[in-house]
Amino acid sequence: MFAFLRPDLARLQAYAPAHPSGNSLDRLDGNESYLDLPPEIKQKLAWTYQEIIATNRYPDGGHGELKEAIAAYVNTYNPNSPNSSQQKITPEYISVGNGSDELIRSILIATCLGGSGSILVSEPTFSMYGITAETLGIPVQKIPRHDQDWSMDLEAADTVIATQEQSPVRVVFVVHPNSPTGNALTPAEIAWLRGLSENILVVIDEAYFEYSQQSVVGELVDRPNWLIMRTFSKAFRLAAHRVGYAIANPQIIETLEKIRLPYNLPSFSQAAALLALQHQDELLSVVDQVIAQRQVLIKELTSQPDLQKFFRVWSSAANFIYLRLQNEQNVDSSQILAQIIHEMQSLGTLIRHTGGGLRITIGSPEENQRTLTRLAKVVDRLF
Ligand SMILES: *Cc1c(COP(=O)(O)O)cnc(C)c1O
């Protein structure tokens, strides 16, 4: 081991990326959209690259045009906000990151780094909060969820917050709806978030908002300690371009802007995000079909006797579903799940083993049918 590397990093594991290889497989392990950009839009993007972008010039380091477009999108595409007409999100409320991943790191640097602060997460959840915190030496407090509906154990959370004296909780990370379990925040959970001290930053990750059609953005202006994260990697079909954004009080945004790298977002990615917003109706029109397909998958998994005997499946507000083994107490479920992943891959479908279960992205109707027949085949083979 090199003496110049921090010893605490040696025990950490890097984030395992989705589908490292496998172009010919059904890639249902990354929660991306199964659709590429439509050819006409891709053509426009290629034209932008050819005619507008000067490769010798740095990108727009202030993201001015993109922030305007994002703010307009946040205001118009706001499903459940009674106040949206009075309280507009302006570009001062927006910071753009190289994926939400960059924003997570900036948030941690802005709040806990080099101090005594810790973060709180409720597992199972998106692993990047914990992974990134640990790379910065920031303690991660973990509380469980109730497995009937995957809501958080709020009593456990209150206890952790009340008793951490060494490293007080400075940030609470929640996902709305959560990954990998698919549940949106309940009214009780949202009420709990409202009741948290203003000395705690509340990060609400709405990566799957376009699928859930539920957002807390309507009360953001009234909640100076709340930050919403969103991304272009999911419903907007731009995972390749790495664009995420934060919506929060301008004072928080100003701090995040100090921390981010000056030219964090390539010109091509900025152009892609702008174009996607210009074509938002067309790109998001497939959301209804994904939701319908999700219901088909859940219905089959809960009604086909072989599958239903074997898997427990929950409802979902996102573009994926979450499964666990029915009798997980009596078996080494992690080993069986690993076997299922392996068998599924050999049949041609990549799915994700995470949070003690299986997370399966909703793909095209054909891919989803193959998911069902292949799961049935694997169950049959293994048992
Ligand atoms: C996919 C996902 C993101 C998106 O991350 P990017 O870095 O923007 O691609 C963020 N949060 C959650 C919970 C996700 O599942």
Q: What do you see in this structure?
A:
The chain has 383 residues and is of the alpha/beta class. It has two domains: 21-37 and 285-382, Aspartate Aminotransferase, domain 1 (Alpha-Beta Complex), CATH 3.90.1150.10; 39-278, 3-Layer(aba) Sandwich (Aspartate Aminotransferase, domain 2). Helices cover 40% and strands 15% of the residues. It is built from 14 helices and 13 strands. The strands form three sheets. It has a seven-stranded mixed sheet with strand order 2-8-7-6-5-3-4, sandwiched between helices. A four-stranded antiparallel sheet has the order 9-10-13-12. A hairpin with a 2-residue loop joins strand 12 (352-354) and strand 13. It is globular and about 55 Å long. It binds pyridoxal-5'-phosphate. Pyridoxal-5'-phosphate (PLP) binds at residues 31, 99-101, 126, 175, 179, 205, 207, 231, 233-234, 239, 244. Pyridoxal-5'-phosphate binds at residues 31, 99-101, 126, 175, 179, 205, 207, 231, 233-234, 239, 244.
| Morphology call | globular
Strand order of the largest sheet: 2-8-7-6-5-3-4
Query: What are the secondary-structure elements, in order, as H or E?
Result: EHHEHEHEHEHEHEEHHHHHEEHEEEH
Distance between the termini: 45 Å
CATH topology grouping of the largest domain: Aspartate Aminotransferase, domain 2
State the CATH class of the largest domain: Alpha Beta
Please give the radius of gyration in angstroms. Answer: 21 Å
* Percentage of β-strand residues: 15-25%
Assign the CATH architecture of the largest domain. 3-Layer(aba) Sandwich
Largest sheet: 7 strands, mixed
Oligomer: single chain
Q: How confident is the prediction overall: mean pLDDT?
A: 94
